[in-house]
Amino acid sequence: MRAALTSRWAExxxxxxPASTGPTVGLRRLGPRGDAADGxxxxxxxxxxxxxxxxxxxxxxxxxRPRDTVVVAAxxxxxxxxxxxxxxxxxxxxxxxxxxxxxxxxxAGGPTPPVVLFAYPGAVLxxxxxxxxxxxxxxxxxxxxxxxxxxxxxxEAMTSHGHRYxxxxxxxxxxxxxxxxxxxxxxxxxxxxxPEALMWVGVAASxxxxxxxxxxxxxxxxxxxxxLLARWAVNIHRxxxxxxxxxxxxxxxxxAFLVVxxxxxxxxxxxxxxxxxxxxxxxxxxxGPWIAAILAVLLYASLTQGFRRIWLVAVILIVVGLxxxxxxxxxxxxxxxGTVEQANAAYRTELIGSTLGxxxxxxxxxxxxxxxxxxxxxxxxxxxxxxxxxxxxxxxxGLFLWxxxxxxxxxxxxxxxxxxxxxxxxxxxxxxGLWIAMVSVALITTLAxxxxxxxxxxxxxxxxxxxxxxxxx
Length: 473
What we know:
There is one protein chain. With 473 residues, this protein is an all-alpha fold. The protein has a domain at 138-468. It contains 17 helices and six strands. It has a two-stranded antiparallel ribbon with strand order 1-2. A hairpin with a 2-residue loop joins strand 3 and strand 4 (110-111). The protein starts with a helix and ends in a 5-residue tail after the last helix.
């Protein structure tokens, strides 16, 4: 996939110099259509076999359970798209991020974002492809993600709290990551349109955010809202304005998501799209994602000698901070004693220190307990830091693995920089930006799927780089 993907990237970013062009992508050689040679072209038997199974399943569903027929048909359609047009299947995964989170259906005992449901059928088919002709080689990302679930299991076993937290972590983290990882490994071209799709989905989310602010309310809080997600179906205000959440269920989730397309747009010099994305980011009025986006852009600029463009970004930030009322209010109130913004900022600042101060070996994975350092009025779901959440529930082992994920992303970014692989570099820096944003937010709503999607793409590209360059460190 390396040659096909990086050549397209180089066309959009010719000023960056040559991109690496190793012979494989996602551990597999490319066929004449840009797919893995042992993928959809070689495995043509999957199409008639799948059509036969699908016909039987839909037929039985119509007779026995008509309501489930739509679900079966959608799964069959996802498989067919993955097998015949992997690149568009990758686009479909990204586009499904826009589905309103509060409308997510209940699957397997709880709400599940459609982006995950869309990816699962493709992952099942991709696993068959890998088992027949390919091999998914585990790397450090895979070990770290699975390790988080193992750490949760050990913590619950040692503290006699059952395994509810482990199951939740498997459903919300490990399984989505595995699905995305299998799809990208089986059909590397599924990543060919990923950066472009992420940018345009970000633009769409920003447009919805602007509509939300102008209308004075989120239009997706009505309609088929899942009763289990009713607590997310509320408008949140700050500085006299509504904080835009678009379809992501919470303003800070939208803000953290937009870090990814902002980095990609900056990397590809898509200045008009970057401006729209920046407006969407500002409308969330979320300081944590603002900081994460700025740091991620600075990091990418420092690695690609792009500081000559930073001055323009700096001027824009200064003008916005000085003359846009709500933004100025959020920034100045953060340093004024007695304001809600300052109290919130102080709480978030002290959260990490308090977590480290009360860190235990096994943590406390009980679902209904609140660490003593949290304010009494906060519920467990209000824990606004993923590192703090993992450290409190999994103890030393979980925190070590979460920090290890940060280190792995840093290694991937460094490797991409050394080899001038700007596709991997932009995605790795975007994932680092998400990690930074999650210092002030947990993996909530559709944001969780976004993080695992980007991490899986980085893991697959990094594995391809290791195969193409066996002496890489």
